[in-house]
Structures are given as structure tokens and as C-alpha cells.
């Protein structure tokens, strides 16, 4: 897995959406793969850019948690405003978690993708399951129609939008590898640029998926049962590695541990390990136009 490159200079004009889209698409052509971490707000996006990551991916769950609601409970208009904030927060390409497209019908999916592009992102993922309690998969043929509608919309844009199609079998409790592969193959034929089956944790299963398709495959780290890291995944042929809401969950977990200490013990030992205000100020100062 290639080492991250330095963050861009903030006194230069920001790259256009078209330039970011080309850069994002080029990352998927690298044989050694790349990591795309998932910020949940502007601050986390800018910190990830400062660390030298080359692209960002939004997380619907992480953003929902930051608003105090479960995943899939953020309205589409609110999510689009969030995408616009993240896309404008750094010079990096941003791909969006678009959930299931905010509607069952193919035209709903197409509309969501167009709105996301207008918000400034250069890619997005579409799930093949209904959102909310009792998630269930769409019929494979209908799910492929939804991806086809998204792909047609993506091709109509004035820049090369990267469409990711997700097979949600493992996430909704239907861990059927054969059906997962059949779905990903159908989405490939429907025009998806990247394929993603969240919940895959076995090395053999991941390798089988990679061999079964001819598009870049995304695998998500953050599941404690997945014992492979990004370098091992790259050796299997995985082109893109994301982390979902795990960074947000890690941050909220530390917050809860610290707040519990404060409430139960009346102490603040957590502050000794906290990043300093001065360090955070230096990280964020390039975005104000003031010297670091």
C-alpha cells in the first residue's frame, strides 16, 4: 500500500471538481491500492488531509451519530448540505456514502447521485438494500436497474464520477458469497466503476470476490474480525480500502470513556492524553489564511 503523500498547500487555488475526479479515478488504477478514510465532519476531514491521505469518503453512520441519531435517519437534503461542507473543506477528492439512494425507484437513485455531484463530490456509493429497521435486499435484477440508472446519470455529468455499487448481503444478515458475487457481477454489467461488499472478513472470500469481477474492489477495515490490514488486502488485489464509521466510533468511544470518568470519579486523567489546543490550532490554521 503506497505511503500517503503530503497534504496540498492551502495558499494555492483549489483544484476543480473535474481535476479532483480525475485524481480520484487514477487512484483506483494503482496496483498497490490506496486507503480512503471516512471523516464525519469538517474538522476530521481537515485532520485527515493534514495527515497526507489522498482522498476522503463520507460515512452516513458517522455523520448521523454526530447529529445524535442512528444511521439512515438523516434526510437527504441535510446529507447533501453535509457533503457540500466536506467537499469544500479540503483540496482532496471526496466520495460520498449515499446510502440506498434515498428511495427504492431507479429515478430516486439517479436524482440522489445528481444532487451529490452538485454538492461537489466526485464519487458515491449506492446500497442494494432498503434502509431502516428490517433491512432487506432488493431483488438482484431490480438492484441492477437502480445501478444502471445511477451509472447513466454519472456518465451524463461533466466530469468522470466514480460510481460504487454495494452488495449488502453480509450487512443484512444474508452472508451468501455466491449471491454476493452474482450481485457484484450484475452491478459491474450495469455500469458500476467500483464494487464493494461490506462485511467480508475472510481472506479466501475477499480473494474470490476480487477474482470474480473486473472492476476495482473496495474492502472496509474496522471490523474486529477482519485480521488483514491494507498491505495484505493490496496483495489480494484489493484496490481501495475504507474504514466506514470506525474512526467516528473510536472518537465517540474515547469521549464516552472520558465523560464517564468525569461523571463517576470527578477526575480528568483523560486530559493528559488529549491533543493540545495549540496542536489543533496549528493543524487548522492553514484553512484560515493565517500563519501556522
Task: Summarize the entry for a quick read.
This protein is an alpha/beta fold. It is 44% helix and 10% strand.
Question: Which features characterize this protein?
Answer:
8-stranded parallel sheet, globular, disordered N terminus, alpha/beta, 292 residues
Describe the fold and architecture:
- The protein is α/β, with parallel strands linked by helices and 292 residues long.
- The protein has helices at 17-27, 42-50, 60-66, 76-89, 106-119, 140-155, 177-190, 203-212, 230-235, 246-265, 277-284, and strands at 34-36, 56-57, 94-97, 123-127, 162-166, 194-196, 217-220, 240-242.
- Strands 1-8-7-6-5-4-3-2 form an eight-stranded parallel beta sheet, sandwiched between helices.
- Strand 3, helix 5 and strand 4 (123-127) form a beta-alpha-beta unit.
- The protein is globular and about 55 Å long.
- The two termini are 31 Å apart.
- The model is unreliable at 1-10 (pLDDT under 50).
